[in-house]
Design goal:
Layout lengths: L2 H20 L5 H21 L6 H14 L6 E3 L1 H12 L1 E4 L2 E6 L2 E7 L4 H5 L6 E5 L2 E2 L7 H8 L6 E7 L7 E6 L1 E4 L3 E6 L4 E6 L6 H14 L4 E5 L8 H9 L7 E7 L2 E7 L11 E5 L6 H11 L4 E4 L7 E7 L5 E10 L14 H13 L5 H4 L4 E3 L6 E3 L8 E2 L9 H8 L2 H20 L3 H7 L4 H13 L6 H23 L2 H8 L4 H10 L2 H8 L1
Parallel strand pairs: 11-12, 12-15, 15-16, 16-21
Antiparallel strand pairs: 1-18, 2-9, 3-4, 4-5, 5-6, 5-7, 7-8, 10-11, 13-14, 13-18, 17-18, 19-20
Helix pairs in contact: 1-2, 1-3, 7-8, 8-9, 13-15, 13-16, 16-17
């Protein structure tokens, strides 16, 4: 690649964009000197280095080097990384629309995605895909990435599948026309009690607002008076989506969040009069995996005393990134401001000790045995907007009620079963043999949840599956984890038959955060005391 094209087309573009867009006060002379220094370094390396040099990679490495010492979230993304980044946040991708797994070196359809092209042509859960476009994919060591390469493709293109279905003595032919496959950010939505609804948001994408609105309408029709909003493990996403979710809860003209940076003046975002849940009681569940847009939602609800927050201190990611697109389709995500809650708390946790220390901080919370991180982490004091309750800044959102992670059912044995995929493989195998019988026996999820139990034979079969991975069962560790193990198995079976909604309905009753939220929402006195 030509020297002038690489350097002037990348480095100079970056610096000129910074100068033009952000009003930098760097003098042109100093800028030219700095740029000439970079150009000279590049030319010296290209000319005199002992081995051949990949010029494009050299420039990319220079950009990465400039960004890595700024803050933990400014970064360079290649063209391919940009494409992969946008897929989940845009709310979909293009393909045939199946959830799959590889069982015994065979491509198994776990479930066709609802409304997707595979479901429309009649592909069913439990089907085995043997041929893709006349290529045998059974018994060849197929990988997940290999499946995606073969099944993903542009909308409107076709893929031919030959499928082996239980009960059929020949392969079935299907032609599937690829289409836009939705990725849902509202994972679960159901009535947790007679008057308490539950909504789980996994990320804030382009479709979150419409999904959330639909869930609220459905739950309102079912008699919802109060709501549990589950943001545990939600890494964030689009600011617009977070603002639209908060707007469902707050009265008109309430400050939701504001941003501010050295070269970016304060910008405020306010609620409107529209919204579906302005009055009912709210409980927000968070943990150390709740970040960015999740923290904006939680901080706004907490600062306006609109609901209670339960769980553990959130991650503390409150930096505003501006995407700067480069000519080749790559991108620089550059931090330009910070997020602040309505009370003035900066969501971003400190990063002045370096990127490594910043990334380790989330794990150090457990290593240091901070049983009540909300108490041990007391930063600057702030007060909520309505009742003037004391809340703390310093990074992340501290819950109103701290609930430690429940590790009573965890053991090394349980961890190994999860880590090596034994539990998932066992469930796939179990469903392959019992799907038809289970559907005949249980006409709906309620019947299944009330009467289905994980019996001793299932546990014994699971242990045998573990032995294949050389996981030695320990009777004491098994006893510690047995209840957790049974609940996980039942939830995964429910998901395999019905969907993610039923998975959470099965798993949540064993969650301390969930149960505490239900308890508080059922008591007007307890709820009011927390908010006053």
């Amino acid at each position: 690649m030509h020297f002038n094209k690489v350097v002037k087309g990348s480095l100079q573009f970056i610096f000129l964009m910074v100068l033009f867009l952000y009003g930098s006060n760097i003098k042109a002379q100093n800028f030219n000197q700095d740029l000439q220094k970079l150009q000279l370094a590049y030319k010296l390396i290209s000319t005199f280095y002992v081995d051949s040099v990949d010029n494009e990679k050299l420039v990319e490495d220079a950009i990465v080097g400039m960004l890595k010492n700024l803050d933990p979230h400014s970064e360079y993304l290649s063209q391919e990384e940009v494409r992969k980044l946008n897929e989940p946040l845009d709310g979909g991708f293009e393909g045939v629309g199946v959830q799959f797994n590889i069982l015994n070196d065979t491509l198994l359809v776990v479930a066709p995605i609802s409304g997707g092209p595979s479901e429309k042509v009649g592909i069913l859960a439990g089907d085995r895909i043997i041929y893709i476009d006349d290529e045998n994919v059974a018994g060849i060591g197929l990988t997940n990435s290999g499946v995606q390469q073969r099944l993903k493709g542009k909308k409107g293109t076709e893929v031919r599948l030959k499928i082996l279905r239980k009960g059929s003595d020949k392969l079935l032919d299907f032609t599937v026309e690829r289409d836009k496959i939705p990725i849902y950010s509202v994972e679960a939505s159901y009535m947790a009690s007679d008057d308490v609804g539950y909504i789980k948001i996994s990320q804030f994408s382009a479709t979150t607002s419409s999904e959330f609105e639909k869930s609220l309408k459905d739950l309102n029709k079912q008699g919802m008076k109060n709501l549990i909003l589950d943001l545990r493990g939600n890494p964030g996403g689009y600011l617009k989506a977070a603002i639209e979710v908060v707007n469902e809860f707050l009265d008109a003209d309430k400050l939701i969040v504001y941003t501010e940076g050295m070269t970016n003046p304060r910008r405020e975002y306010h609620s409107s009069s529209e919204g579906l849940f302005k009055k009912g009681k709210v409980a927000v569940l968070i943990n150390e995996g709740s970040a960015s847009a999740s923290e904006i939602v939680t901080g706004a609800i907490q600062d306006w005393d609109r609901g209670i927050v339960l769980g553990r201190r959130s991650f503390g990611k409150g930096l505003v990134q501006r995407p700067l697109n480069l000519q080749d389709g790559s991108m620089i995500k550059l931090t330009i401001a910070k997020y602040y809650t309505p009370s003035g708390r900066c969501i971003q946790k400190p990063y002045d000790k370096g990127v490594d220390a910043y990334r380790r901080e989330i794990y150090m919370r457990d290593v240091l045995h901070q049983e009540n991180d909300s108490v041990s982490h007391k930063g600057p004091e702030y007060h909520t907007k309505s009742s003037q309750r004391l809340v703390y800044g310093g990074g992340g959102i501290n819950p109103d009620i701290f609930i430690a992670a429940d590790t009573t059912g965890y053991s090394d044995y349980y961890r190994d079963l999860i880590a090596l995929g034994v539990i998932n493989r066992y469930v796939l195998s179990f469903m392959d043999k019992n799907r038809v019988g289970l559907k005949e026996r249980y006409s709906n999820y309620k019947e299944f949840n009330n009467s289905f139990e994980i019996d001793d034979k299932m546990i014994s079969d699971l242990l045998d599956e573990g032995k294949k991975e050389k996981i030695t069962s320990d009777i004491n560790e098994l006893e510690v984890s047995l209840s957790l193990l049974k609940n996980q198995l039942k939830a995964l079976i429910a998901r395999n038959i019905w969907g993610v909604n039923e998975y959470f309905q099965t798993i949540n009753p064993n969650s301390n955060e969930f149960n505490k939220a239900l308890e508080i929402l059922s008591s007007d006195k307890s709820y009011s005391n927390l908010l006053n």
